[in-house]
Amino acid sequence: MLLRAIPLTIAFGFCWLAVMPLSDLWASEPEPKNSPNHDSDDGDDASVQKLRRFCKTAKARAASLLSRQARKIERAAMANANSQVEAEASATQVFQQKFLASDATQWDPLEDMGPASSLLQCDESNGRRRAVFYYLKAVAQRVKQVFHWESSSASARPHCISIHTADDANMKFGSGARGSTEIQTVMANIQEHVVTCSASESECDLTWFNLHQPIVPLDRADTVGLYRAFMGWILGFSNYVGWRWQCWGIPPDLFRNVARRTVVFVGDALKANSALFKILSQCIHEQEKGPDASTQSCCLQILCNIHQVSLTRKNVALGFQGYFSCLVRLGHLFEGHNFRQKFHAAMSKLVQSNFEFIIVGNLPNDVQRWHDMKVQQLRLHTDTGFMGYCGRNPTTMSRTLQAMPSVKCESDKVLEAINKWTQAAQHPSGGDAQELGRLVEEMLQQDSSYAEQNAKRFRLVTETFQSPNFPVIVNCVDFLMLPLDTAVNQLLKRTTVLKRMRFNDLPENSTMQELKEESKVFFLQWADGTFGDNIIADFIKHVKTCQLQQICGSCSDPSVIQTCFELIVFGMADTWLRCCHPARCFPNQMFSLTTCDPQTFVQKLTGFQRIMRQCPECVDVAFSTPLLQSLDIAGAFDQEVQAYIQELQRHLTDIATFTPLATTLVENFHGKNQNALFKFRGKSKAPAAAAECSVLASLVSEHAYLKTLVMQSTMPSRWGIASMQKRLGRRKGIQPKCNRKARVIQSAGKSRRRMSAWNAFQQEQMRTRGVLTAVEYKQVMKDLGAEWRRLSGERKKQYALDAAYQQSCRDELETRPLKQPGKAPCHELATPEQPEDLPAEEQSTSALEKIAGSKHLSRISSKRLYVNSANKAGHPSWSTFGLSIQDANGAVRSDLVDLQTSQAAVDFAVAFSLHRRPDEDIIEQIPMPDVNVHTQTCFGLYGGGLCKKNEHHTLVKCFARSFAQLTTSQKLPSGTLVRCRPVCEVAGSGSSTDQVTEAYYFLGVLCQKPLIQVFAKAWPCTSGMQSQSGSSFALVNRGSGEQRPTFITSHEAFHQLVEAHSGRLRGIAVSVFTTRFEFDLWGVHFLQVAIIGKAVEHLLKTGVSPPNQKVQVKLPFGVKMEAKKRRPYKKRKCEPKHKPEPSKPKDTHLHVTAAPALSDPESCESSSDSPIDLDGDDDEIEIEEGNASAGPSEGESDGSEELVRDHDPPTVTAKEEEAAAQSAFQDYCEEADDRARLADVARAQPEVRKGHFRSHFSKSVGFTSEASLAPTGRSRCYHCNQAILKGSLRFTYFWSTSRPERYLHSTCIASFVKADLGNRLDQAVGAIEQFPRQSNDPQIRNGATILLNELLKL
Asked: Which residues form the PARP-type domain (predicted)?
């Protein structure tokens, strides 16, 4: 730029020389006036002075030009620097919006940054890794700041609650061989950390953040692999920080300044999760013995209560035969588009024939009530009424299916047979319906196509819906589901409360303290069993208040009534076992200290410590034991003890407030991953890319929800912004040149004309006039102009003041944001008594909008939108939510995004910390405890009042094991009435039963491992029918006013009997009664049964055979026996000709249908599918069938004390087994001789050349004398490679001596033979000539004859 200025100066100088006189170029200096040679001439002096002034002016102009050009260069340099900074900021914002934000929240027009800057040059995979890199780096920096507490006061040290919601799932990845997909097991863990630091409850500093970690593929889906994957990403546990977080600089002693730390593990009821929690408990137990006790750590396990309730719902749905299978078949049918269309058409016809459409002017008053009821019915649960299908009309669904057109397919014989069978059933004269039905069943048993399977499903569904009891069953299932759906709704509501607390999303008319109190109260109700008691109370309430007669109609089937009663007992018993029984055990008992006063707290804590000293296994190791051992209240109640009580109560309150009771977070995380990873088209992602996508999916989802809440409180609605964009920049009849977003920016940059006195005068005069035409408006303006000119100066000065005030209001309004959705309109917020002469700064927004007018509001709406955007960017949620690493543009702030970092450094950091497999050094650092601790307490295993150190523990456990064996062998359902009577020894007379202490129970549920069986107390009643024994029993004791059943475990029941007859008990007699429900279905609320037959008695004796265990031989001096090598598996050579059948137990009991059994809290297997462990410990015992006999009167001993003696004579079964063994040995010897002879013959044959093998299929290539009808449509023709239709004729052809046969169409054989006529014709004719003589099928004979004639013509 300076070089450009120099030629301009030179040119200006030459121009000056051109106007000068040439004589002045060599003229000497002027002489003084008094010089003799000087002629004083005034004209010459004036010209010289003028010339000098002109010269000075030219120099000044040149200098000014040079300085101006220098300043211009400086401004250009500054502009370039600013543009570069803006470009970098633009690239950062584009990166945030592309990789760290959701598209669903980017509807603000001011966020549109246009095309990406040239600095942002990264593809999808590189940008994804950069986003993960920035997030993990920012988290590591912020976490170190959060836990960097330096305080000398112990009370000011923070408390930390680490909540881990973990679950494993199977996912498909594109990492298989040759680009194929494979299924791998992955672990997902949602980490939430709540850090509180307070000396009192009122002054609390809360930090609640979530760590988004990726899904981790497991090399081995076992407990060790799950534990290593879990510990790799854990932020801290037992003085250990996950090695993946250590890669980002987080120190191992991160929690050195934390006073208390509780790790809450939330998961579903799986064995792997329980085993993982057991290892964590062992780590806590080892830490208690270690020297470092600065941070007190404990661990708490929470089973997902939604899963627990769902397991009960599953068994209730499976209780009625045919209900769940019908739903599954309907689901398969609705997968087909054709069925859905037909179903919709049938429903339309049904609605059209049952409803009448009436056009009215005004809607009736009941429309709103009907709408509310419909919304209530469409919810997951409703407190009143039932969700019956199609208006609860029993014939509606069957009429719907009848209205559907029948499925027709001319090429399917099965469907034709079904149609004929339907016609024969409707018209008896049309054919034999039974024979056609049998034919259909035989055809459906064969391999069928998809259409045939759907036809079978349709027929079965139609039959089920047309059965008279099916509507009753549907309404009964819905009736039984109501209490469980209520519980699920309550759990989902608490999950919503936790989410509102975390995002500070307060509902109307509520505060954060109210939300915390609601969350804490619900958790404490779950901990003390009130939650389960409410579910049982809902069962009783619905049974008593609901009128099943009106809903279900008349039902005379006794099996439906009996099943309904059994499922009611099962639902309440299962709920009691899952929700109420744990409340009597630790660690739930510890939460009863939360709301106690200091004196009660000391009493309860002392009692808990006494229980722990008496039996350590009665208290859980991971949570209760560390808390009980932290303080010994043996001395006086001083200030230190009181401070400890307050601290512990505050910590328990925090756990109850922030701990979830369901795994909805991780389930939603799985859903987000499925949506992010799997597309309709395209290749599946590799595990590395899937891990990165899982981090960003969770991170972006959290930021999108927070941004939605911020925009709801700071920005106008989406519709308001869209209407504003549509209105700005438009003129009548002129199409705007730029888009909507650009028009908003242009409108905000325009300068508006200031308000003048004339405008104030015109506004005042036009206020009273109506709508004017163009001609009228022109004339009015002329009149107002003339009137304005006639006004005096005082009046104009008054209008000038009014205009200045309005302009100040307009200027103030430009600084006010637009109104937000969900808030009251601005005119409603204004105070009606507000004076009009207030300053503009003190006026409300509604008053300012009224002063400015609607036209001006439309013009300045874009400027006000900038204020909304600024409020959104500066919202306090960005600095208070979580770790404060997000802003309005993305989940990671712009100052934490450094695009100058090289891609190689980013890739290395992400691969080193995220995708690296743990080596041996890393595995050694992970704490792996050696001790084996208990995770199940005595109370949890056996019930209240029974401990392993109790003197009757072994005997009670034997009785419980024998009774569980009796229940499984006899397949006793829930609701079975049993009587337990102790059998005592009497001196001189053998034994006798004690009828005074006998007890009646209804069987509840049976848990397999550990063994827990629930009884419901049966109460005798006098009302009801008179049975043979004249006895009736009810589930509820109505005489005492008790409204709920009394549940008890089998261990507690037998413990009461053993304690009452200590030392004299010889056994327990168990009588199983055959009962009948006394009332019809509408009288189910009585819950009463009557005995109708004789009881079958079984004796549970005290002697029990110990479980079969291998005897371990110990050698001296530490010598160990060499382990036997396992032989390789070999197929059995032969089987015995006659297998001895196992002995069957005597059927001395009336067979009843088996009710659903309770699934194990650590397993989802049922009691009838797998052997059960009847012991509460880890030992397993195998139950034999038939060991529960009819009773001691027949002289047979109970299976639990059956012994095998060596001197017993051989039985008939033993002799049969010996004979079978001898026969099998003879067969084996004969087969061995045959094999040896065949081997000698094979060795004698000449060897085959290398590369060829003896044929195991055919000795020659060509056609065989075999032809058949294709049983399926899967085979293909060897000649044309087309499918051979099912039922069509096909011929067998061996194309190789070492490969299986192939098949040919009958129409392709002629062309196939013609291709090699010399070698194939004679062989084909010779083979096909045998078909008419060998086959009895007329279709094969006719086809072979036609084919033979064609070949002979060749």
From this structure: 1265-1339
